[in-house]
Specification:
Blueprint (H helix, E strand, L loop, with lengths): L2 H23 L2 E3 L2 E3 L3 H11 L1 H19 L6 H21 L6 H29 L5 H6 L1 H30 L12
Antiparallel strand pairs: 1-2
Length: 185
């Protein structure tokens, strides 16, 4: 990757991390159920640049959110980890396919990433509730089906929309990568 692309990547990653933070701040939070779009910038960075960018965007965006919303707690890393893992997994898979994914592959990959986020957040919720004394089994397991449904529904929509977003960003930013066979199909 040439220097110009590296600068574009760094700037876009910083902007995506900021968008991740803003989307997290404006999520709908109902206790054990949180409806948020903060995974979108993580997926975009992962699909555009690979695992390191996805992990950085997820880590920085979520860290800012956690620090400004809750401060530092013993479980702060557990709340950041899901987005870092998602960025790594989605980015690694995209990189292995040379950033050339079909629509179905993109949908399945985003579903996998969102499931990672939801299941890790469920684990963080469990640890947090036990550590701080507000554990109720119904809070963790009772809402799991709803959380998984929301997760998969969002992921399918993301997976259908993100190929076009990634193609547009590549074109607008003049990113020099291998041709993207199948990204828009």
């Amino acid at each position: 990757m040439n220097t110009t692309n590296k600068v574009k990547q760094l700037v876009l990653n910083a902007m995506l991390a900021a968008v991740c933070f803003v989307l997290a701040m404006y999520s709908l939070d109902f206790g054990a159920v949180k409806f948020t779009f903060e995974g979108i910038p993580v997926h975009i960075a992962s699909l555009l640049f690979g695992p390191a960018s996805g992990m950085a965007v997820g880590g920085v965006g979520t860290l800012l959110y956690q620090l400004l919303r809750y401060g530092i707690t013993a479980t702060t890393p557990l709340w950041i980890l899901p987005y870092v893992l998602c960025g790594g997994v989605v980015g690694l898979a995209a990189k292995r396919r040379r950033y050339s994914l079909s629509r179905l592959q993109t949908v399945l990959l985003i579903v996998a990433g969102e499931l990672i986020i939801t299941l890790c957040n469920t684990g963080a919720l469990y640890v947090d509730s036990n550590l701080y004394g507000w554990y109720y089994p119904a809070l963790i397991t009772g809402y799991l089906a709803l959380r998984l449904f929301i997760c998969v529904a969002k992921a399918v929509v993301y997976g259908l929309v993100l190929p076009e977003v990634v193609q547009i960003l590549r074109r607008v930013l003049h990113l020099e990568f291998a041709p993207q066979k199948g990204m828009g199909k």
